[in-house]
Every structure is written in C-alpha cells, then in structure tokens.
Amino acid sequence: MKKLGIIDIGSNSVRMVVLHIKPDGSFRLIDEVKETLRLGERNGDSRNLQPEKMRTAIETLRFFKDLGEALEVDELVATATEAVRRAPNREDFLKMVQEEIGIRISVLSGMQESYYDYFGAINTMVLSDCLIMDIGGASTELILVRNREFRQSVSLPFGAITMAEMFRLKDPLTEETRQKMRKFLYSEFANLTWLESAGPLVGIGGSFRNLSKIDRKLKNYPLDITHNYSMTDMDVNEIFRLVSGKSAKDRTDIKGLSADRADIFPGALAEIEALLDFTGIKSIQVSGAGLREGIGYEHMLGGREPVRDVLENSLDNLVKNFGVNERHASNVWNLSRTLYHQLQEELGIERNQERVLKTAALLHDCGINVSYYDHHKHSFYTILNSRINGLSHKELVMAAMVAAMHRKDEMKLTAPFKSLLDRKEYNTVRQLGIMVRIAESLDRRQNGNVIGIESQIAAKTVTLRIQAWISPGLEINDAKSIAGTFARTFGKQLQIQESEEVDSVE
Amino acid sequence: MKKLGIIDIGSNSVRMVVLHIKPDGSFRLIDEVKETLRLGERNGDSRNLQPEKMRTAIETLRFFKDLGEALEVDELVATATEAVRRAPNREDFLKMVQEEIGIRISVLSGMQESYYDYFGAINTMVLSDCLIMDIGGASTELILVRNREFRQSVSLPFGAITMAEMFRLKDPLTEETRQKMRKFLYSEFANLTWLESAGPLVGIGGSFRNLSKIDRKLKNYPLDITHNYSMTDMDVNEIFRLVSGKSAKDRTDIKGLSADRADIFPGALAEIEALLDFTGIKSIQVSGAGLREGIGYEHMLGGREPVRDVLENSLDNLVKNFGVNERHASNVWNLSRTLYHQLQEELGIERNQERVLKTAALLHDCGINVSYYDHHKHSFYTILNSRINGLSHKELVMAAMVAAMHRKDEMKLTAPFKSLLDRKEYNTVRQLGIMVRIAESLDRRQNGNVIGIESQIAAKTVTLRIQAWISPGLEINDAKSIAGTFARTFGKQLQIQESEEVDSVE
C-alpha cells in the first residue's frame, strides 16, 4: 500500500491529486485539490514570477503538503511547467519552496510535459493515430501519436492566459482580433513540418474540459462525462461564435463555462479552431487525463511502457476497487462470451460487442456495494459513473444497461438515454442482457461448476448442453426463468440440459 | 466471519436469505431466493400437505441447500409456519426433508412466529406503541406492542390463501362476498379482548408489500422503498375497491400487484380493511422486515434484547459496510452537531434534525465507493438506496441531499423529490448542508485536528473560533469557500478564526 501525491504547478492553476496504490496493483484517486493562482500572468513584459504570486503559491503548496501529511502520503512528486520554466527568477522560487516547505519541485521541459500528456491519454483512451493538444495557461503542447507511439512533440510558449494578454480578449471579439489571432497561430503551426492530420485531435486541459461541458449543455447530452467525449470542428466553430460575441462578464452566462476561465477562454478556442483548420482534422476527443495522470501511470506501471489494453486495465482496476467476487465475475464473463460466440451469427446478434459484454459481465454485481436489494439497478448507476477507460460513451451506457438486466427482465430505453442509443443498439443490449443472465444462472453457485456449453440451434429451438463439475441441476433450474424473455427476443424456445457426455473413466 | 442462511417455509412461498456477519458485528444480505409453492393450498377439506407439494418443496430445499453450500454458509436455520404446523402428516414431511437432504426444520408455534415478526420490525423501525399484522398464506399474526415491548399476540389460522379458498375470490367480488368476509373477520377479531388501537398498524408480509407498491404507483411516489412506507385507511379502501371490481385475470393490470398473488390478494385486503375498521386505526406503516429478519437479528444480537437505537445500529452497520473512514465520519458528525446546536436557535434552523444531520454526516463520503469524482452525488444516490432503518422517507431524502451538499453549492429541489419535500424542508436541507460543509472543511485533514468551536452571533456576522491540536490554518482556509453560500442563506457574514486561547503551559 502506498499513497502517492502528485502536485502540478501550472500557469493557470496549481493542483494536487492523491492516489492510493494497493499491493495488488490497483489504484484509486482519494483526494484532489485545486487553486486557481494564475502564476503565468505577466506584469508588463517581464517573464519573472511576480513576488505576490510566489507568496500565494508557497501558501498553497504549504496547504497541499499539510494535507498530504494528514492523508499519510508516502511520496510527493511536484512538477512545474511553463510559468516557472520560462521565468528568469525561477531559481529563487524553487529555493524558497525548498527552504520554506521542503518540497523539491521538478521543472519539466516542454518535451517532458508533452510526454506525460501522451502517457496520461494513451493509458486511458483507445487511441492509435492522433494529434494531442494540451492547452495550458502559458504553453501549448502538441504531440503526434502514430500506432500508439509518441513520435513528435512541441511545447509552444503560449497558452490561454498568454493569448488573452496578447490579444486583449475581455471585450466581445472583433473580426480583426480573430484574424490577428488566426494569423499568429498559423505562422506558429507553419513551423512544425511534422504537423498533419492523423486521426482525431485529442484535447487535454481545462479549456477542452470547459469546451466539452458547454457542448454537452447545448446538446442536452445525457451524460456528465468529459473523458472520451466526442465533438466535431463544427461544434467548436459554433461555441467560438457564441463566446466571441460576449464580453468576459457576459460569458459567465454560458452554461458549462467556469467563471474563473471566462476571460481567457476565447484564446484557447482560437488555438483549437486554428489547429483544426490548419490540419483539416474534423473530430475531437476530449481527454480528462493528462500530465498528472501520466505521472501517476509512470509510477503505477513502474516505467514508460503503456498498458497493453486500456479497457482490460481499467476493468481489472475496477473489479479490485469494487471488491466484487473476482471468481464469479470471471466465470460470468467466460460463460457469456461462450454463449455470444456460439449464438451471435445464427441468432443475428450484432458483431464485435465483446467490450460491452465484458464490462457488463465483470461488473454486473458491483451495485451490491450500494445495497443487495435491487443491486442490478445500482450496478447500472455504478458502471455509468465509474469512469471506465477504453469505452465510448455509447458502449458505456450499453454495458450499464446489460448489467442491469442480469437478474430481471428488460430495462426499458427511456429518457435521457434514448438520445444516445437507437433501437438497434437497444436491441443489442437486450440480446447481450440475455447472455449475461444465462451466464449468471449457470454460475449460480458462484464457483465455476459449469465448464462447457454446447449450443445447438434448430428452427424453433436453441438447446444448450451443459457440462459441469457436479450435476448442474441447480444452475439449469435457475436458468429456466429466462425462457420467456429468450423466446420473445429470439423467436426460439430455450432448452437447457445436462450434457450426456459420459466420463470415460471406468 | 460467518455466513448464516435462514430458510422460511411459508404457506405461500419458500424463501432463503443469506447474511454475511463480520467479526465487527456488521452484517449484510448477500443472497436471497424465493419460490412460490403454495404449500398451504388445500386439496378438498384435508389439512394434510399434498404429496406433490411436498415433492416440490423438497426439490426447492435441495436447491437452497446446494446454494448455501456453494456460498459457504456456516449455519442454516430452517423454519416452517402454518401450512406445516397444521398438517396432520407433518412428521412425514419433516422426516423426508431430514433424510433426503439433511435439513432439520423447526416448526414454529404461532407465538414464536409472532415473536420473530415483532423482533424483525422492532429492530428496523422506530416504533413505540403499535399493532403488528403479518398476513401469510395460511395464518395471520397479530401482535400488540407497548413501549417497544411484546405484549400480546395471536396466530389466526387463516391467511390470504385460506381466505381465497373460503370465499372464492377469483371473480370480481360481490357486495355479498365482501359482507361475508367482513362478518367472518369481525367475529374472529371479537374474540381478542386485548385488540385495540395502539399507534399505527405495522404491516408485514407479501400482501402488505404489494399493497404499498400499488399505492406508490397510484401516487407516483418518488421512492421505490417498501420499508417504513406510510399509508392511511383511505388508501386501503381505495385499493380494495379497485381490486374488488376485477377478476383475478384482470387484476394483473394493476401496477404493482405481482401476477402470482393476483388471485389471493383480495382476501388479504379484506383482512386489513376489517382490522382497521374494527380497531379504528387510521395509519399504516409497512415493514419490509419480519420473520426472517427477526431470526437474523436474534443471531446477530446474540439474544432477544432489541437494539437500543434503530438508526444508530443501522448507521453503524452501513459505515462498516461502506468502509468509509470511520474517524473522519465521526469527526464530521461531531463538528456539525456542535455547529447545529450552537447556531440552530439564533439562525432559525429547524429543531430536532439530529437524525438527518447524523445520517448525512456519517455517510457523506460513502459515494466514494462509486467514484471519487462527483462523489457527493454518488453519496446522494447511495444513501437514498441503502435501506437505512430508523428514518422516515422524508428524512432519508433530506439526509441524502444534505450529504450531496458537503462539497459543492446547493443541490436544487427538483422532480421527483419536489413532491416529497416542501420549501421549508428544503430550506432546512440547505442549512444543514452548510453545517456539514463547514464540518468537512474543519476536518480537512481527516484526523480530528479541530477540537472545539465557539460561535458568536452578531447582527451582521457569525464568528467561529476554532481550537485545534495544531494551528488550523489549512482547515480555516478550506472553510472560506463556504462564506458566500453562508451569507446568502443566513444573511450574515461567516468569519472563521483560530481561537486566541493560549496554552497555559509555559
């Protein structure tokens, strides 16, 4: 057991996350604090850290340190980025922090910052080729990813605060200002010979989080989840238009925009819009994970080799965090996968649904942590809110619904999820729900008694022959309650029998 | 650690619950199975158990036994009630069960059955004087409770199935049938000299659970919680009218009524209506706990002394089940109680809200089990669904909302909870939410650093002087985020200072 604190001294805000890493390799976030200090705000032309900002930063770090001690943090990693990196007086600041509160800050190079951004995103999203953009207060990182590998990166020395200082963005934006920003950004991007359209733009940082939140509010999106949220270039254009027309004060009316970001937000939007235009990228995926998560994964994985399978890694972690019965969960997953593979084609079930099925099967009982009563409903809620990495939002909702169907008849497709799933996807959910429900019955003893299933599909029937360690009468009896739902869904009678295979041992 | 299985062979259904009892005394339900066998159904005039029913019962018990073994149950308690109790051939049945599956069934006397009903209800509801009614398939228990004590009881040899057999209730009921049932029931009740109106009628059993479910559906009630649900005699009359007008087949249209109870439900309703009329009792509280829970509590408490404080017992159990940081939870409860007691009168906060405040304070972090992100929202969901005993439904919703406010500004009062809380109650929620939020900040280190609070209330300010083990700068700094909400709610500025008390140690 280890508690790791990660402090990130950014140009806009200073944050600390505390991770609890268990001996079994699982981890969870146990605390998070943030202060918006605007350390990267300049006083005139000086790139120095301003004395009063330094004082506030030290007070904040003292608070973080105290909190870390109170939480019994074993290791504290503190990093700083552009505001400190560029400051001629940074040694004074680092020395003060070291002497007054005993924290040694690592000032990350632009490349290191880019790498951790990449490492946070690559371990929490299913990405192959993409361009990552992290807009900070005083810098912007761009990272080219090919085949999940880190290829190229740059740390541009301007961010949301810098843009606001350069172009004065407090009033409604004139067309002239927008053109100026665009010209500036294009000339910066033009220097990057390697910049190209490579899959989606993956957006990191508070500006992207705000952008996605505004978009969700505008669209009445049914989930309040930032990570892996998808948007298009058109969505960005629309929000930029909306924001540009307003002064910083009036922007606070925009639902989803943080008050403490209203003044600097248009600069970030200008950067995103220009990059999309410049590269021709049309689609954005927002990442809730970046620098801090990248540092966290480096510690947890013990190196810089990304996880092999993002979803699997995330599910392993959640299975341990939720303390579900791992043996039963894995039995239900194996049995439902067997059923799916044997029945998928002939019963006309959608292909390639293993990720949804696996998530639902492994986590079907996680709602027991809320209460045993109606725990299928609580599994729905828990899955929906548990920040599983490696699923699209659609798949997440589908998995939550499949899990909700593991004990009872169908869950209806109602608002607000109606807007996310169409009838066909809902039908897939119902079909997968039956697979999990049969698997749940077949592992009714929770001990892996059922070893094999052999399916025979005839005109009017589906027969499952069950091979089990000891006679599976109990399991078959329990599975009978599914027959009605099965017949309604697939138009065939379900028959479950003990396999007639006889042991050859005399 | 111990796993206890409790089998209850009733006249309508046979059930098993499995409880996991931990060394720290906490327990949770981990499995529940039910088969509706109608063991109490008669064949002509014979009171004997019918051979085919006995066979099915034995198969069901074999399933339960196997499941118990698979779940590694350490102790299996099996009880039977009226259907077995009255049967002249019961010894044959008991012997068959013993010989074929090795389960020894205790046949409870009517008094024992009544006692366990009482013990299930008294440990899970705040009751002083009341009349308990448990309607089974073939018997009805009535128990008079005075001052939380078991006073008198009777087990009447008829229940929902018996009534259906006696009065043929499959068709829509004629006025004549209703009169006949009423006459029969009144004559039975008239023999019970001790029967009187003593607080509410506490209803136990499937018929009451169905009754409450129908009532919730009719009223669009915002919670799907049976235990401690309140109804009036008028509600019962209305539902009886609704049910009486329909045949058994048509009754399945009634939302909330189980299909496997549609034929016998009017008999149970007739019993409830007659008892309310006879005693003049106007209000009903439905108990989700009865015989099985009574047996469970006897085992868990190691005797027949009821818990001293139902809410406290339930909260202790949930704090352990959820694995929340007990020290921090108890610090937040102590600090918020101190604040409440010091501020309640002068700031015009509602009196007697300790139960709501205690629940919210002790469980404010339980949502972390779902995810740290937005855990205040998950605490809301978890509290609402965690079957806390000893709170009214209104108090439960209030506590969940107060917990949801421990980190962020107010949670709005929206549908469906608008129908349960009025503006005044919502205002109380907001005020208590501030108490918990200040307490949370004052225990920001989670280690009980703050020892004392001294409040001073002036015309325009409320000043809190904080005494702490080590200087509480961190805590006070954290609590400052509440100042705006505090001022808006109470119309006074909140000031928090370190107490000037100086240690007298030189």
Automatic annotation (TrEMBL), chains A, B:
Keywords, sorted A to Z: Hydrolase
Domain Ppx/GppA phosphatase N-terminal: 23-300
Gene3D superfamilies with a match to the protein in the record: 3.30.420.40, Exopolyphosphatase. Domain 2 (3.30.420.150), Hypothetical protein af1432 (1.10.3210.10)
Record-annotated membrane-spanning stretches: none
Residue intervals of the Ppx/GppA phosphatase C-terminal domain: 312-460
GO molecular function: pyrophosphatase activity
Pfam families, per database record: Ppx-GppA, Ppx-GppA_III
Top-rank taxon, per record: Bacteria
Keyword Hydrolase on entry: yes
SUPFAM superfamilies per the UniProt record, alphabetical: Actin-like ATPase domain (SSF53067), HD-domain/PDEase-like (SSF109604)
Assigned protein family: Belongs to the GppA/Ppx family.
Protein name: Exopolyphosphatase / guanosine-5'-triphosphate,3'-diphosphate pyrophosphatase
Annotated source species: Parasporobacterium paucivorans DSM 15970
